[in-house]
Write a structure and sequence with these properties.
By secondary structure, the protein is an alpha+beta fold. It is built from 5 helices and 8 strands, in the order ββααβββαβαββα. The protein has helices spanning about 30-35, 50-65, 115-130, 145-155, 185-200; strands at about 15, 20, 70-75, 80-95, 100-105, 135-140, 155-165, 175-180. A hairpin with a 4-residue loop joins strand 4 and strand 5 (about 100-105).
Length: about 210
């Protein structure tokens, strides 16, 4: 019997610190303005050396959305109403009740704030309570220790390593570490994220919590 997950559809997810708005082509320039720091893309498979690279990044995300397998967002700072990063649902398999949260980056001024923590809280809630999935995946470059610690701190289980899994924009072929949260674990993960938000803190890392950006 097919898993009773709902189709991906554009939606705005609102929190006290961040608003996740559906990505559009019109966001490319604003994303480049805050995303030009090379440190954001060290572990990325995407090359990000100029505004044309950001436009291609956005175009790829929107093409995956058109195929029904992704739903990309921009982070908008609720206080300043400014675009400050991007994230997405991806690799959606409704029939298996599975989705990935990834391609996440938050620009420097908003790192180590509540923005990324609340964005994760909003996305996990939409995945489990809105879409009705049974599993949310996250993955990281095996070299990205900060991201791996941040995922475990959320409550995601580290499940294993895929060796020589993906080529980065530098040509380096990385190992990828998979993490996941399943539906039975969501209440505990929700409590962890809520506690972190109550303290006003970030879950850790640099604001780049998934490295397949």
């Amino acid at each position: 019997m097919p898993f009773p997950s709902r189709p991906l559809a554009p939606v705005t997810l609102r929190g006290a610190h961040v608003r996740l708005e559906p990505l559009t082509a019109a966001h490319a320039d604003a994303l480049w303005d805050v995303g030009r720091d090379p440190a954001l893309w060290v572990y990325s498979i995407a090359r990000m050396a100029g505004p044309d690279d950001m436009r291609r990044y956005v175009d790829v995300a929107l093409a995956e959305q058109a195929r029904g397998t992704a739903l990309p967002f921009v982070h908008v700072d609720s206080a300043g109403d400014r675009v400050c990063g991007s994230t997405r649902f991806a690799n959606y398999a409704a029939e298996h009740g599975r989705v990935e949260i990834g391609w996440t980056w938050v620009a420097g001024p908003w790192q180590r704030t509540a923005v990324n923590t609340e964005a994760k809280r909003l996305m996990f809630a939409h995945a489990f309570d809105g879409l009705g999935v049974g599993r949310v995946e996250l993955k990281a470059d095996a070299r990205n220790a900060r991201s791996r610690v941040a995922m475990r701190r959320i409550g995601a289980a580290e499940e294993g390593v895929l060796r020589r899994h993906m080529a980065t924009h530098t040509g380096y072929v990385r190992d990828t570490v998979y993490h996941a949260v399943i539906a039975d674990e969501w209440p505990a993960v929700r409590a962890r994220l809520d506690a972190r938000l109550a303290r006003g803190g970030e879950v850790g890392g640099t604001g780049v919590t998934e490295s397949r950006a």
